[in-house]
Design a protein that fits this description.
single chain; 109 residues; mainly alpha; 0% strand; rod-shaped
Length: 109
């Protein structure tokens, strides 16, 4: 009878050790899966951050190009306005310059 009890206790201990070993393997597998999932999430995050950065950079570039185009358009409009304003006085300025030059040749200030 004692032998039977001892055999059952040894069998139970062996079974318990197998259950513990199986639980340790499952725990190790879960830890490895969690590590892989964390690495994948970090990689996706890094990739997404780079994509977002590139998107913002592209948008900034587009806004800068639009601003430069608008400034060039305004500059051209302003140059045309100034040219149109100066045109009527061009002849008057040439006449005044000739008078000054011819006056300087005649000894007049």
């Amino acid at each position: 009878m004692e032998d039977e009890t001892l055999k059952r206790l040894l069998a139970a201990e062996s079974q318990a050790e197998q259950i513990i070993a199986q639980a340790d393997r499952e725990r190790a597998a879960l830890i490895e899966q969690a590590k892989l999932a964390a690495q994948a999430a970090q990689s996706q995050h890094s990739q997404r951050a780079a994509e977002i950065g590139a998107s913002f950079l592209a948008q900034a570039q587009q806004r800068a190009e639009q601003t430069v185009a608008e400034m060039r358009r305004r500059y051209a409009e302003r140059a045309e306005v100034m040219k149109a304003a100066a045109e009527p006085r061009k002849a008057q300025a040439l006449d005044a310059a000739l008078v000054l030059l011819l006056g300087a040749d005649n000894g007049e200030p």
